[in-house]
Amino acid sequence: MSTLGLWPFRNNNLLFFITFGYFSFLMMLEYLDLLLFINDLEHVVINLTENMAFSQILVRMIMLRLYNCQVGDVIAEVMKDFDKMCYKTTEEMKIVITYNARSKIFVKLLVVSVALTASSYFLTPIIIILGSGFPKIVINENMTQVIYLLPYRFHLFHAVDNMRTYIITYAVEFPFVFVSALGQTTADCIMVTLVFHICGQMSVLSMRITNINTELLSCRREMRHAVQMHLRLLRMGNTIEKAFNITLLAHLLGTISLVCILGYQILTNISKGDIGVLVPFVIFQFLVLITLYANCTVGENLLTESAKICEAFYKCHWYDMPMENARMIVLCMVRSQKPLCLTAGKFTIFCLSTLTDVLKTSMGYLSVLRSFCNIIKISSNFRKGLIYIYKLIMRKSKHINV
Predict the structure, then answer these.
(1) pLDDT at 268 over 60
(2) What is the span of the domain harbouring residue 151?
(3) Could you tell me which residues come within 8 angstroms of residue 249 by beta carbon, excluding any fewer than 6 positions away?
(4) What is the DSSP string of 26-77?
């Protein structure tokens, strides 16, 4: 977050506007490339492979900037919980450490996956050139043209027709690798880490509610502490949901599109036998799926731990408590029936069922896309055949006239 100028406790507006401006400018070039070649289906599919992923990163950076202070407040609250004095037993500490370990595993997986995806995508043209040289197209019988491959589908306002221009253009696009990779990991890692921490604290809270002492003085003190802790966690969870619901909506829509498009790219390259080009797409697909799985998992854990708090209020010995505390338990029961959750733009809840829904939807779109592309190819071949027959007839008619 510091590299992008987004760390809440050490904001750097200049660094953010430089990185965000650079990223936005290249994204506009990518959108322009999509508009200019909108009639070319293969070009559109390749462009959308990058476009959908980078558009998600753009939304992530914007939302982190807009909710920078709120995310900083949640991080400050989380830091207060990393103290042994906050926990009564070793079992409570183990629960928090377990959830913290889960977030660390995800961070490591995501960083490695993003690094492999970004580097393999950027280096693919270089690998192709080192393997078989620059690709060439035949213009006529005596002339061929060299194609200078670039990693991204950015529209260029200058011709890349010599080695010097090619190297400069490639170098200008090099920082895009780091900005896109950091934009991806920053938002996902901070959200997963904070949500897992809230889940750990909610698990601790449910344990404390179940074991509330029913004696008058102890019960009043423990109930007050439980209510305050519950309100604190609800406030933190609602802040996270508000800060990331647009990000999750963009992620949900982008993932449906990317799983479909990347699946089409993988199947197309397998049929063509392009194994070298296949590797970046497989790594990219793995990154998309692991990110979706992580977001669905944290959403499921948040729902589960919220439900456990509701159960804990029912399971505690409320019938042995003083009347004042028993009434308070009723209010807590009512509030805990509305669980904390992660939503995609307030439309749908992120949980493990979302994972299966996304995969089913993407596979359906993939089937439609393949059928549509086959129809386009058949119609194109049919049109070419008609043109060839027409030319052949015209030649024969000219020969008969002569």
Answers:
(1) yes
(2) 13-350
(3) 344, 345, 347
(4) HHHHHHHHHHHTTT-HHHHHHHHHHHHHHHHHHHHHHHHHHTHHHHHHHHHH
1-50 pLDDT, tens per residue?
A: 888 888 988 888 899 999 999 999 999 998 898 888 888 777 888 888 88
374 alpha-carbon distance from chain centroid: 30
What's this model's pTM, rounded to 2 decimal places? 0.83
d(CA 115, CA 109): 10
Do 234 and 296 fall within a single domain? yes
Number of independent structural domains in the chain: 2
In degrees and rounded to multiples of 5, residue 339 shows phi and psi of -75, 155
Radius of gyration of the chain (CA): 28
Window from 86-100, 167-181, 216-230, 271-285 with minimum mean pLDDT: 271-285
The band of 264, judged by pLDDT with boundaries at 50, 70 and 90, is confident
Phi, psi for residue 274 in degrees, rounded to 5: -85, 80
Residue of 202, 225, 200, 198 whose CA lies nearest to 312: 202
Whether residue 167 is predicted with pLDDT greater than 70 in this model: the reply is yes
| Residue-wise pLDDT tens digits, 201-221 | 988 888 888 877 777 677 778
Same domain for 376 and 305, yes or no, is no
- Which ranges constitute the DSSP H helices of 211-274? 216-272
Gap between the Cα atoms of 118 and 365, Å rounded: 26
Instruction: Say whether both 377 and 284 belong to one domain.
Output: no
In a domain, 117, yes or no: yes
Asked whether residue 53 falls in the same domain as residue 121, the answer is yes
Distance CA 313, CA 84 (A): 25
Q: Is residue 141 part of a domain?
A: yes
Residue 8 lies in a domain: no
Sequence-distant (6+) residues with CB within 8 A of 73 are: 239
The verdict on 378 and 234 lying in the same domain is no
Beta bridge partners of 140: 143
Whether 154 is in a domain gets the answer: yes
Quick one: 240 and 387 in the same domain?
Answer: no
Q: What is the pLDDT of residues 42-61, one digit of tens each?
A: 788 888 888 888 888 899 99
Same domain, 315 and 376: no
Exposed, middle or buried: residue 171 (CB in 10 Å: 0-12, 13-18, 19+)? exposed
User: Are residues 252 and 375 located together in one domain of the fold?
Assistant: no
